[in-house]
Design brief:
The structure holds 2 protein chains of 2 kinds.
Chain A lengths: L1 E10 L7 H6 L8 E7 L5 E5 L8 H13 L6 E4 L17 H28 L6 E4 L2 E4 L2 E7 H10 L13 E5 L8 E10 L6 E11 L6 H20 L30 E6 L15 H17 L14 H10 L11
Parallel strand pairs in A: 3-4, 10-11
Antiparallel strand pairs in A: 1-9, 2-3, 2-8, 5-6, 6-7, 9-10
Chain B lengths: L6 E3 L4 H11 L3 E4 L5 H6 L7 E4 L9 E3 L3 E5 L4 H6 L1 H6 L1 H7 L5 H6 L2 H7 L6 H7 L3 E6 L2 E6 L4 E3 L2 E2 L6 E8 L5 E8 L9 E10 L2 E10 L6 E2 L1 H7 L6 H8 L16 H19 L3
Parallel strand pairs in B: 1-3, 2-3
Antiparallel strand pairs in B: 4-5, 5-10, 6-7, 6-10, 8-9, 11-12, 12-13, 13-14
Classes of the chains: A alpha+beta, B alpha+beta.
């Protein structure tokens, strides 16, 4: 049995992408993202996002952002996505872009709702819009805190339209797009300690530590889930997953008995931590979707190679299956000089 | 995928089940927990015309003490075997090995009899009943028959059961308290089949291994006893060095398969390493 420690650092380019930059790379589309908000007469809100989720928890995070920006209860927000009849505009979710680009589009859409509502609130309060401040879902006159209207009251007054100022439409709905000025750059360092059974080639991860800087965090639990899932995927690439074809080009890894995926029983308990240096966008966010997948594969393989250094082994083809690890040891000229067999 | 069409019966007595199976001929299959057969049906690697579900035959479940041996009903689940106090006391190897089968969901549905009758060379329990020198009890149109485990496994996924016979129970001789045991399973992920497995029993006496039995999983189309290892281990010192030396013959006479998880030479190497470890653990070294 030999122990090894692997380290990997990464800097990712996320928040895809400034449209001018992707245009210069002859990308077929822009890099912006869209969001729209429908403020209903009830004060509840429907959010339409172009960055469609497939399980990452956008519904939750997007509701948190809107709840913060508009000062309305989290449970009064419904996020709609995933059907072009509902959300026709959008570039979708990839490249850890949803929060850094789609989330910012949502902030822009919230700004427009607040700006429209402010004009109507000013009329309701018989004050100048310039004298109103908006905080925690409430428009109030500076210096006269009793004179205030909630955004829900404004929403109902907008719908009835009985006393709207001249030229104001009876709608608080908004649509916004966000085209980022720059990419975001999440980064981190991961450490992996493995035990290699030099007699069988079996690799066991003893501990795994991931420290990522993904900027400001909207929902820590979702971030933790993204990191854990990413680590599992990256570790699987290092140790398990492989599409194998025979000499005639037939795929032979056609079932999950042949194409191996790890389960919780095969993976360690992760130690995760974060630095939070905020990004330059208003949410301060960088993106987290791929952090775990990027750093973990090299961290694991580096730890195996570190364990096998006494054998003169500098590389093992991924995935590092027990048979490959054993053959690397078996074919090496060096002996286990530290005597650590079994 | 969806299985090919088949008829399905769920008899309420063993006689009825035997009749249904015999009437179905070569194209009838018994289904118990379904953990091996259902994947084969779904992948259309098997397409029987008739499934005889023995799930209604409760007399095939559970463990009874028969003096010198335990009779384990063929429908007894892996989960039950892992937790049964009589099995723990008299043939703990079976419980330990059953605990390595697949995952908890499979262990709750999969049965000992099903696992043996399926005769997958990568299955864990065939090698275990081999070294426990169990007897398999079957009932068919011509009555009841007892088959020594060593004569049960005929070939890849093939047993010596006749087409109309149903495996009803497994008789396992009780082992004395001087026997130690170990099932060493080598697999890449927790749920995966054994690339190689080694079932070892050792009786220790005065610092020596008086008697040893070693069975190998997935080192050929059927589970095999490593006779040369057993001979070398008998009378050997109960020491890691002596048992590792005895294990050097573990792959002798085997015919290990080649697949994505291991070439034959790697499997032979694993058999030697795992046999050394299993014997050492069984002998309490």
């Amino acid at each position: 049995m030999r122990l090894g420690i692997g380290i990997s650092t990464y800097t990712e380019m996320c928040g895809l992408a400034p449209s001018r930059v992707v245009g210069s790379l002859r990308y077929g589309a822009g890099g912006w993202e869209s969001a729209s908000i429908r403020m209903l007469p009830t004060g509840k809100v429907e959010v339409v996002t172009g960055s469609s989720a497939h399980g990452q928890g956008h519904e939750t995070a997007w509701s948190q952002i809107v709840a913060d920006q508009l000062g309305i209860p989290f449970e009064d927000i419904r996020v709609l996505h995933g059907d072009t009849q509902v959300s026709p505009k959008g570039m979708d979710t990839y490249g850890s872009r949803s929060l850094a680009v789609g989330g910012m589009a949502l902030v822009g859409a919230c700004d427009k709702v607040v700006a429209k509502a402010k004009v109507i609130a000013a009329a309701m309060l018989e004050a100048s819009a310039d004298d109103l401040e908006f905080s925690a879902g409430k428009f109030s006159v500076r210096g006269d805190p009793d004179a205030s209207k909630t955004i829900q009251e404004v929403a109902l007054a907008t719908f009835t339209a009985h006393a709207l100022p001249d030229g104001v439409e009876p709608s608080l709905d908004s649509e916004a797009t966000y085209d980022p000025d720059n990419f975001s750059f999440p980064h981190g360092t991961h450490l992996c300690a493995t035990e290699v059974d030099t007699e069988t080639g079996f690799v066991k991860i003893r501990s795994y530590v991931a420290v990522d800087d993904i900027g400001a965090v909207v929902n820590p639990l979702i971030v933790e889930g993204q990191v854990h899932g990413g680590l599992a995927q990256g570790i699987a690439q290092a140790l398990y997953e492989e599409g194998v074809y025979d000499d005639d080009g037939n795929l032979v890894t056609t079932t999950l008995a042949d194409y191996l995926l790890p389960s919780a029983a095969d993976l360690p308990s992760y130690v995760t931590s974060r630095n939070e240096t905020v990004a330059s966008n208003r949410l301060g966010v960088k993106g987290v979707g791929e952090a775990g997948t990027i750093a973990s594969t090299p961290a694991v393989v580096n730890s195996i190679v570190d364990a096998l250094r006494p054998f003169g082994i500098n590389d093992i083809t991924m995935p590092c299956t027990p048979e490959r690890v054993w053959r690397a040891i078996h074919n090496s000229n060096a002996s286990d000089s530290n005597g650590g067999s079994a | 995928m969806i299985p090919a069409q088949f008829e399905y019966v769920r008899p309420s007595s063993l006689d009825e089940a035997v009749r249904a199976l015999a009437d179905g001929g070569d194209d009838a299959k018994v289904i118990a927990g379904g953990q091996s057969l259902l994947p084969l049906l779904r992948l259309r690697l098997a397409y029987p015309d008739l499934l005889v579900d023995v799930g209604g035959l409760d007399e095939l479940c559970g463990v009874t003490d028969q003096g010198d041996s335990l009779l384990i009903g063929a429908r007894t689940t892996h989960y039950h075997i892992v937790h049964d106090p009589m099995i723990a006391e008299h043939c703990g190897l079976l419980a330990q090995a059953a605990g390595t089968v697949a995952d908890p969901a499979v262990r709750h549905r999969g049965t000992l009899g099903g696992s043996l009758a399926h005769a997958d060379p990568a299955g864990d329990l065939p090698a275990v009943v081999l070294v426990l020198e169990a007897t398999l009890v079957a009932t068919g149109p011509n009555g009841r028959r007892e088959i020594p485990a060593g004569e049960f496994f005929a070939d890849y996924l093939t047993t010596t059961l006749s087409p109309g016979e149903i495996l009803t129970g497994i008789r396992v001789p009780k082992l004395g308290k001087d026997w130690g045991y170990r099932y060493e399973k080598f697999h890449r992920t927790a749920q995966a089949w054994a690339i190689v497995g080694v079932a070892a029993l050792a009786r220790r006496s005065n610092g020596q291994v008086a008697e040893a039995r070693v069975g190998l999983t997935n080192m050929g189309p059927v589970p095999v006893r490593a006779a040369a290892v057993e001979a070398a281990a008998a009378g050997a010192d109960a020491s890691a060095a002596a048992l590792t030396a005895a294990a050097a013959a573990a792959a002798d006479g085997t015919n290990p398969p080649a697949d994505l998880h291991g070439q034959p030479d790697y499997r032979s190497h694993l058999a030697r390493v795992l046999t050394g470890r299993a014997l050492a653990a069984a002998a309490g070294v």
